[in-house]
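Class prep. Protein, please:
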Amino acid sequence: MALCSFDSAEAAQSPATSPGSARIEMGGVSFAVPKDWSSQRISGGILLLAPRTERGWQANIFLQHVTDRENRSLDKAITDLIPSLAARKQGFKELARSVERHPAGLQVAFVEYLNQSENTPLREREVVIALQGSERLFIVLSSEVGVFGKYEATFSGFLESMSQ
């Protein structure tokens, strides 16, 4: 099951891919910032925030550049990530996972899951992008479960906008 269709017409029309969008860069990869979203550097990463809080949660995208000391394949990295997510995320329930190739030529792994943050039910998509050697870019796309569909085009458009 493909978690992100890189050639989707819906993603191409996303606010994240509007001409003239601001771009952020991490790990030698850049992305279009979704329209009206704010950006801030926090503890080793970049946090993008939706303009408003809905249902007790502010949809967000978090990026972090890391080194995989074991230099695992993305299949193995995602398989190894699941127990960690289950331990850290209250009510963790995996929905799907896949490994795909982005049009920019990078291999991308996805795992989508449900969990709870305090009393807010969340739907999140963890993305791992293989960079050079053992370098990886981790991205978490997050929203309250009931509004995830509203942000799907923005999340997909953000990933679609990736370039090196």
Helices lie at 9-12, 74-88, 148-160. The chain has a mean pLDDT of 89. Strands lie at 23-26, 29-32, 38-42, 45-49, 60-67, 90-101, 107-117, 120-130, 135-144. The radius of gyration is 15 Å.
